[in-house]
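JOB MANIFEST
job_type = single_chain_structure
chain_count = 1
residues = 205
[input]
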Amino acid sequence: MVSARHPVVVLGLPASIAAKIQYAKAVAAAMDTNKVTFPSPDPPSPQFASDIAAVDAAQTAAQSKTKGSVQARDEKLAVLRRDLKQLASYVQSIADANGTDGAAVVESTAFAVKRPSIRTKPAFRVAAGRSPGSVNLLAKWAADRALYEWRYSMDRTTWVSLPATIQSSTTVSGFVPLTAYFFQNRVTTTGGRGDWGDPVSFSLS
C-alpha cells in the first residue's frame, strides 16, 4: 500500500546565531516573493522582519560583551525561533491544502521538505504460524471474487499443491524446522487466471 501522507516542512535551524539570522532572512524573502501562495503569514511579514532586525542588532551588541547583552540577545532569539516555528506550521497548512503540489509549495520557501516515504506491501509473504510446523501464507487482496492457489517445493522443480482458498491468506502445517521451502501463489479472478508469482524462500526456526 502506498502512503498518502503530505510532504512535511522541516525547520532545520542552523547551529550558529549568524546562520540563524541569515536563514530567517531567507524565509522572510521567500514569503514576500510568494505573496500569492502565502497571503496571510503568521506572524505577519512586518512583525517577522522586525523580530529579525531585533536579533541582528542584539547579536551585534552581544559581540561587544556588554553586561546583559547576551541575555537580551537570547531572549530576542527565542522570539525569532518561535516565529519560524509558526511560519513552518503556516507553510505546512498551505502545502497540505495543495495536495500533490505540496512539496513544490514548501520548496518555494527557505524551509526544507521531508517527502513521505513510499511503502509498498509485498505481493506475497510467508511467516511462521502459531503452531509447530505451520506457516502463514499471505497474498495481496486481488478482488471480491477471487480464488487464491498455493503451492510449495523444496527444489523449485517439483511442486506440491496446497488447498486453494477464497481468502487472501491461509495457514498450512507439516513443515520441518530448519528446512528450506519455496512457496508460490497465484490468483484467479473474473478477469482470468494469473501466473505463479516469484518463489519465496522460508524456513522455520
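[summary]
Helices lie at 17-33, 45-63, 69-97, 102-107.
The radius of gyration is 29 Å.
exit_status = 0
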